[in-house]
């Protein structure tokens, strides 16, 4: 689970908060290119592809001081170095915590069924690979993506071999496609899907898990059901529509099952995993498009309740967010070229008692070093733009982070102790000023040349 799960009950969509106040809740818990690399490396998500950091062989990676350790339903043993998965209990029961991400990047050497190939090359039980495919954790591309600058000489060599024009011309599957189109990745949905030689595979062996999904009475969270949509009171610690490597443990999936629907529900918008509140799930693809249109036309109003650690001024708060899809999100008060504008309107801000010790323990709230106060500040917020982590990042930027937000409180504390510490924003402003100076200098130089002529 994300580090910010402790704020789950404190960051609630106000559209339904009044409907649920009487109910108590437990809000706890929140390419490689060749076979040899697939067997010897473990990759983090940040490595994107080909692996930027390794942790030794799989046997070493999973070794512990005890004889066995249970991870994601698979019992791993140290008794045999030849078989890292001697016992297998599938992906359930769901683990209470997430482990280190592990992603394998492969280039298919011999065509065949995808399940058999992955199981053989990565040395995993076929049923485990089948479950990964069911979770949506396996992707393919007809042509291997371009390696990053950090790729090894061997990886670059393999990439050049499988993308050589003479090799690609022999592959009927990519005829009529541009090189870039052939590099686009798609999720594999069938265990018997055939992959031809030269196909690229990305396997998320340790998908992000959501144990909270199995603790919820999903029927009780359904607020309304119509012919076009379903309104769900999303629990904290869950994903609305799933993640890159896990589309099984999502609100859309579990709500579909709770209602006994034959067709899956569609997500129309998102709220953070650690956020609790109202979400609209479309029953048809057509209504999904209709709702997206309503959002674009500003016909949907998004109201939030956030418990801030410091007072927040009433009115519109504007920041600019760095266009990098990595958390935590970076925002600046200054207009920065290419950054996205973020606006929210604080409608109300009132003092409320700081959560008691028992409440903090029950909801697993971590102060993260924030000086404990006698009061907190309940803010009613109208979200004018919808960027990921927008409310959390903006409140932290003005020195009023959400209580228990372990992702943004440390940054707010550091900025308060050392104003201007945000080096990236300062660097962005410096570069902007420098570019302005260069533009003025060029214009002045051109003017001088024209005058001399």
From TrEMBL:
Name this protein carries in UniProt: Pseudouridine synthase RsuA/RluA-like domain-containing protein
GO biological process terms, semicolon-separated: enzyme-directed rRNA pseudouridine synthesis
CDD domains: PseudoU_synth_RluA_like
Gene3D superfamilies attached to this UniProt entry: Pseudouridine synthase (3.30.2350.10)
Classification via SUPFAM superfamilies: Pseudouridine synthase
Domain Pseudouridine synthase RsuA/RluA-like: 229-397
Species assigned in the record: Papaver somniferum (Opium poppy)
PANTHER family documented for this protein: MITOCHONDRIAL RNA PSEUDOURIDINE SYNTHASE, PSEUDOURIDINE SYNTHASE RSUA_RLUA-LIKE DOMAIN-CONTAINING PROTEIN
UniProt-recorded Gene Ontology molecular function terms: pseudouridine synthase activity; RNA binding
Entry-linked InterPro entries: PsdUridine_synth_cat_dom_sf, PsdUridine_synth_RsuA/RluA, RluA_PseudoU_synthase
């Amino acid at each position: 689970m994300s580090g910010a799960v402790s704020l789950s009950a404190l960051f609630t969509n106000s559209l339904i908060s009044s409907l649920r106040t009487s109910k108590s809740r437990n809000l706890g818990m929140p390419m490689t290119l060749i076979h040899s690399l697939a067997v010897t490396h473990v990759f983090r998500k940040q490595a994107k592809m080909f692996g930027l950091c390794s942790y030794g062989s799989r046997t070493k990676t999973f070794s512990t001081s005890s004889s066995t350790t249970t991870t994601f339903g698979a019992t791993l043993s140290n008794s045999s170095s030849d078989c890292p998965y001697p016992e297998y209990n599938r992906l359930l029961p769901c683990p209470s915590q997430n482990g280190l991400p592990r992603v394998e990047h492969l280039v298919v050497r011999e065509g065949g069924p995808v399940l058999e190939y992955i199981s053989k090359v990565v040395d995993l039980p076929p049923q485990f690979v089948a479950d990964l495919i069911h979770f949506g954790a396996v992707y393919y591309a007809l042509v291997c993506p371009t390696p990053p600058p950090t790729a090894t000489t061997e990886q670059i060599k393999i990439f050049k071999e499988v993308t050589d024009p003479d090799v690609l011309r022999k592959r009927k599957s990519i005829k009529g496609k541009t090189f870039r189109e052939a590099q686009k990745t798609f999720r594999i949905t069938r265990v018997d899907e055939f992959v031809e030689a030269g196909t690229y595979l990305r396997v998320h062996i340790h998908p992000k898990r959501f144990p909270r999904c199995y603790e919820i009475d999903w029927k009780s969270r359904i607020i309304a059901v119509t012919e076009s949509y379903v309104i769900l009171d999303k629990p904290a610690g869950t994903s609305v529509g799933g993640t890159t490597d896990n589309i099984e443990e999502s609100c859309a999936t579990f709500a579909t099952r709770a209602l006994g629907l034959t067709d899956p529900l569609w997500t129309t918008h998102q709220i953070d995993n650690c956020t609790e509140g109202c979400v609209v799930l479309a029953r048809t693809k057509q209504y999904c498009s209709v709702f997206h249109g309503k959002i674009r036309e500003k016909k949907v109003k998004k109201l939030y309740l956030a418990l801030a650690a410091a007072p927040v001024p009433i009115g519109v708060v504007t920041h600019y967010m760095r266009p990098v899809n990595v958390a935590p999100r970076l925002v600046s008060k200054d207009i920065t070229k290419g950054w996205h504008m973020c606006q929210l309107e604080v409608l109300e801000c009132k003092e409320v008692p700081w959560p008691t010790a028992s409440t903090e323990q029950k909801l697993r709230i971590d102060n993260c070093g924030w000086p404990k106060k006698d009061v907190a500040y309940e803010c009613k917020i109208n979200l004018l733009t919808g960027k990921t982590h927008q409310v959390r990042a903006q409140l932290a930027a003005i020195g009023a982070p959400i209580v228990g937000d372990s992702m943004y409180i440390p940054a707010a504390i550091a900025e308060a102790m050392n104003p201007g510490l945000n080096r990236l924003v300062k660097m962005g402003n410096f570069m902007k000023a420098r570019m302005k100076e260069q533009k003025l200098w060029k214009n002045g130089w051109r003017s001088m040349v024209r005058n001399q002529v």
